[in-house]
Every structure is written in structure tokens, then in C-alpha cells.
Design brief:
Blueprint (H helix, E strand, L loop, with lengths): L1 H7 L4 H12 L8 E4 L2 E2 L8 H9 L7 E2 H12 L10 E4 L5
Parallel strand pairs: 1-4, 2-3
């Protein structure tokens, strides 16, 4: 099945998500993508504080994304309330996209 998509899709995650979502939607399966901005995790502890400050300053809320921010949106996408949302890229950031 993956080989089928490689011939039809310019290989970007967003395009792959759209192609896959249109192919399997008839089974009641939705495919979406989540794209968070710089997130506070153990893996970002080594990023200099100045870079984090600049990223946070770009955001109207003046803070970075947390794992809770991401998780709450993923839970929403997995719920029945989002059963009609299919093939989207959901940016998790407070900045204009």
C-alpha cells in the first residue's frame, strides 16, 4: 500500500496525510497530522534559553507549547466530536499560520 502512495504523492508529511486520508476514509478511518511548534520537553532542555525566549516572544501568549497543549488536541482529534475532520494538518501554535 505504501508503494502505491509513493507514486502518487510528493513526499511531504502533509501531502501523504491528505492522500492516505482520502484512500481509507470510506472505512470510517480518519488520518490527520499534528504539527506543534517548539515544545517544552526533556529533549528541548539543551536549547539555549535565548532561543526559547525568542520563540515565545513570537507567540501572542508569550509562552511555548507544552505537551498538555498537544495531548488535548490529539484527544480531540481522536474523539467522536472530530469524526468528520479528515486529512488536515493541525498546527499547534498560538502564532498566525
Amino acid at each position: 500500500m505504501i508503494e502505491f502512495f509513493k507514486d502518487r504523492v510528493i513526499e511531504t508529511p502533509a501531502n501523504y496525510t491528505k492522500a492516505l486520508s482520502s484512500e481509507i476514509a470510506y472505512n470510517g478511518i480518519t488520518v490527520n497530522m499534528v504539527s506543534p511548534s517548539l515544545t517544552i520537553t526533556d529533549l528541548t532542555n539543551d536549547i539555549p534559553a535565548r532561543i526559547k525566549e525568542v520563540e515565545a516572544f513570537k507567540n501572542p501568549t508569550r509562552r511555548l507549547v507544552t505537551t498538555i497543549d498537544i495531548a488535548s488536541q490529539v484527544v480531540h482529534l481522536c474523539s467522536e466530536d472530530s469524526s468528520y475532520i479528515n486529512g488536515i494538518n493541525l498546527p499547534i501554535t498560538a502564532t498566525p499560520v
